[in-house]
Design goal:
The protein has 289 residues and is mainly alpha-helical. The protein has a domain of 125 residues. The protein contains 12 helices and 4 strands, in the order E-E-H-H-H-H-H-H-E-E-H-H-H-H-H-H. The chain has a two-stranded antiparallel ribbon. Strands 3-4 form a two-stranded antiparallel ribbon. Strand 3 and strand 4 form a beta hairpin.
Length: 289
């Protein structure tokens, strides 16, 4: 944001209520991004829609995932019980009907205060090609689990995180690391130019991890089953097997051979009669057809 003097701002940079805005004094952000310029409302900042104005869409559909999750359903059914206008807003004390985005990522519990760093309680980053645990991830996880403990038993929380990590590991090992290794080989062999996005496979790869892969991981993290599966892992697998692998092979025959030998992908070489019959029997029994 650029100040021109005499109470005027550069129209190329103002109005600007972005959470990452750089102010004339070098500080970052604006309270109005969440609290609103007209009312400076805490209740507004606590509403999930407030986050959804930015966190939505194909690459980071947090609001869509929240809305389909049990948390979002509980919130809509019990919004009158959420005490959103309260000066004190401590989960488990001032409200307990449901969590919002703010509850988990920013708001106070009986053991910790409000934070305006929405990443403070995130232990695994789901944004990059390959998910990794962040610095000080143990403390971050304890902080998030403290929020969870206001509604959930310890066993439930631990089991959720076990499933969550297993899903992230599956994505990393089956799709993310193999795809990255193939791209690295293509660049090293000069089968791709250094210019980004001038070749089809670069777009395919980008959507594989940046859109579909994020949806799978975020859907799991926020307990949105449709985004974990059909908008997530189904799309990842479809793109990986029917677009990314064939495109890579066309550019450099044999480049995917080591990847496709993995137990994760051995099904593509064909199933034995016994294995095929097991699959048929399983689905016949499951769907009674």
């Amino acid at each position: 944001m650029k100040y021109l003097g005499d109470g005027r701002f550069d129209p190329a940079t103002w109005p600007n209520s972005g959470i990452g805005r750089v102010n004339p004094d070098g500080s970052k952000g604006t309270c109005a991004a969440c609290h609103g310029r007209h009312s400076f409302s805490s209740a507004l900042a606590r509403q999930p829609e407030n986050c959804g104005k930015c966190h939505l869409g194909p690459d980071h559909p947090q609001i869509e995932i929240y809305n389909e999750s049990k948390h979002g359903i509980q919130f809509r059914a019990n919004v009158a019980k959420m005490n959103l206008d309260s000066k004190s807003w401590i989960v488990g004390k001032d409200y307990s009907a449901a969590p919002t985005c703010a509850t988990c990522h920013m708001s106070a519990t009986s053991n910790q205060g409000v934070t305006h760093d929405v990443g403070d309680r995130i232990s695994i980053t789901l944004r990059p090609v390959i998910s990794v645990k962040l610095d000080n991830w143990e403390h971050r996880r304890i902080s998030m689990q403290d929020v969870c403990s206001n509604c959930h038993a310890t066993g439930w929380i631990n089991n959720f995180y076990a499933q969550y990590e297993a899903t992230v590991d599956l994505y990393n090992e089956k799709f993310a690391k193999p795809a990255k290794s193939i791209m690295d080989k293509l660049y090293a062999a000069k089968k791709l130019t250094p210019t980004p996005f001038d070749e089809k496979i670069e777009w395919t790869y980008y959507e594989l991890w940046h859109h579909q892969g994020r949806r799978a991981r975020m859907g799991t993290a926020m307990m949105g089953p449709d985004y974990a599966q059909w908008h997530g892992f189904y799309e990842v697998a479809k793109t990986f097997y029917t677009e990314f692998i064939p495109e890579a092979e066309q550019l450099m025959p044999g480049v995917t051979a080591d990847v496709m030998k993995s137990d994760f992908h051995k099904w593509t070489t064909g199933l034995s009669k016994e294995e095929l019959q097991q699959q048929i029997d399983y689905y016949k029994d499951r769907y009674k057809q």
